[in-house]
Amino acid sequence: MASQHRLDMQGISIEFPGVKALTDVDFTLESGTIHALIGANGAGKSTLMKILAGAYDTHTGQVLLDGQPVEIRSPRASKQLGIEIVYQEVDTALIPYLSIAENIMLDVLVNNMGGRQWVNWPELHRSARKVLERIGVRLDTRVLVQELTLAQKQMVLIARALAGDARFLILDEPTAPLSNTETEELFRLMRDLAHNHGVGVVFISHRLPELFEVCELITVMRDGRRVAHHGIADVSKKQIIELMLGHRFDETYPKRQVELGDTLLETRGLTAADGAVTDVNLTVRAGEIVGIAGLVGAGKTELCKTLFGAIEIKSGEIWLKGRPLRITSPHSAVTQGLALVPEERRKEGVLVDEPVYVNLSAASLSKYCGPFDMINQRAEREAARKAIKDLGVKTPSENQVLAYLSGGNQQKVAVGKWLISKAEVYIFDEPTKGVDVGAKQEIFELIGALAKQGKGILYASCEFAEILGITDRAYVMYDHTIAKELETAQTTEEELLFFSTGGK
Predict the structure, then answer these.
(1) Residue 116 — pLDDT band, cuts 50, 70, 90?
(2) I need a surface site. Which of 58, 177, 300, 462 has the fewest CB within 10 A?
(3) Alpha-carbon distance 381 to 400, whole Å?
């Protein structure tokens, strides 16, 4: 049996420009336990774990390991104590032009370079394959990370964390890009690490059923403070949600009584290059919310990107308001009235290192350009402040760098830039991924408001409850084509799952 260890974070506080992110937070993690850490977007849970991982060095308070004070002011110090973290932002944590093996064994490579040793490449690949086998993943370790799917990148990150001698493992939204099968495999791995190898696991997730399935303890945060700590068997899902939000909550979808207009968007035999999408026929009417349902890998994201010009169209047609469109790039899609909120928002949907106002105006800069194409920053900032108020974005000002906002607020900005652009059709690809229940409901209301304005909405998601709750009709995708069209009010999650797994 592995030796027992205990981490105690006591009185942890930290401030960023204009924001008190954490105030006097206590958190304890013990060997052999799976500990849920939950809170609304902006509650401080990821910030707390980043302190434990050594990403921030300006915090106050203390950290104890087995009762002895330790200094964690750098990622290296954290790793030396056996603390490993798998961050939510998958693409920023991996090096795309390196192989799977190099990414998994990155710490080994860095240490070898420091000692000016030659790299034993065959041994490096063998070690990487051994770690992948441990987590039940089969990948060619010679493949570059940039060629992987989002789910595969997530598993590479987990493998990297386990390549060291981890005493404590922090998983920040690890299941967001995973299929049901991959999620179950991750849960098997978590239980094995905790119960058979004595690893203390922190599991951050907005999917409450997952927490109840795999965790033993739960800590709830709100507004930068710890508000509750329980055995997970001692609380209900409703109690946890109310602790997160600080008030009673009933998850509802926008109540809409919209008279649908004429056909707004139509595709005819739409086929993308390299088989990304095959022979897709769909329609969206003005004021209608149409679901694109399917499991991970079914082709939902590829369809969204094909419509938006990010994947080359091989054959077929796209029509808007009765006229054919010639979409050759995202720029041409925007100029012809389409908008896309992508699944990987930090990589493709926002400019994380730019201020909020720059992000909000990014899709409609021409509105703020005067003579000689000079940007009228006063008008740009005024429009940004109005959008921030209308969207309920939590930020000190429009000048705040977007990277410092929570995931839910970043998502609101990713949506908000299109509201200023006045698009006709809005394509949402997994818009609630990594978003808490409160921000999720605000996004539902925002989408409902767009539909009331007569906009056409495509809502792609593997969350079948959301498809049933918010859409009028749904197309189910399987193997990169549409397998079935269903009236949402007349179907069930079971039927969606049946067709999304190849049922006929």
Answers:
(1) low
(2) 58
(3) 12
Give 334-347 as a DSSP string: HHTTEEEE-SSIII
- The distance in angstroms from the start CA to the end CA of the chain is 50
Q: What confidence tens digit (pLDDT) does each residue in 283-292 have? A: 999 999 999 9
Class of domain 1-82+165-250: alpha beta
The continuous run of DSSP H or E covering 319 comes out as strand 313-320
Residues 461, 464, 468, CA angle at the centre, nearest 5°? 105
- Is CATH 3.40.50.300 the right assignment for the domain spanning 251-337+425-504? yes
CA 318 to chain centre: 29
What is the model's pLDDT at position 146? 92
User: Could you give the strand order of the β-sheet that contains 168-172, starting from the edge strand earlier in sequence?
Assistant: 83-86, 168-172, 200-204, 34-39, 217-222, 225-231
The segment(s) of the chain belonging to CATH 3.40.50.300 are 1-82+165-250, 251-337+425-504
Report whether pLDDT(111) > 80.
no
Taking only the tens place, the pLDDT of each residue in 244-270 is 878 766 556 777 777 889 999 999 999
